[in-house]
Design goal:
165 residues, mainly beta, Elongation Factor Tu (Ef-tu), domain 3, SH3 type barrels, seven-stranded antiparallel beta sheet, six-stranded mixed beta sheet, 1 helix, 13 strands, 43% strand, elongated
Amino acid sequence: MAGRICVAQIGGAHGVSGEVKLKTFTADPMAVKDYAPLESEDGTKRFVIDALRSSKGHLVARLRGVTDRDAAERLTHTKLFVPRERLPPPAAGEFYHADLIGAAAVTGDGNEIGTVLAIHDFGAGDIIELRLNPSGAILMLPFTERAVPHVDIAARRILVVLPEK
């Protein structure tokens, strides 16, 4: 299981006073401020959200110490992480996407076809990205109960139903 979980990503500057657009990956988008301090992916920068508000399809955050547009622009695409223990445990039948990375993807007959590389959300629902064995080809499937009917976090395996050709 991952030691840190990505809870948000800075999308870019918002205005001229140092605010940033923020995409959150928390169940309650506004809860991201409660997990402070947030850390950059490499762990070298820490961030505290002093203010957070909703704005036309995204959140706008004021980060402590970021006071102008140039500083905000330098943070564009920064992923923000928190230690796993700071997050609530997932409810029964739920899991953190980070727990799926590296899990084996198997078919109904038990054939291991690949490994989970990532979970994406391009706006129309989650997509699961698999690296297939032995070719290394990439397969993307909708992360729905129909395509991925079972997730076993303890065994680090997911059951996949491949699309018919």
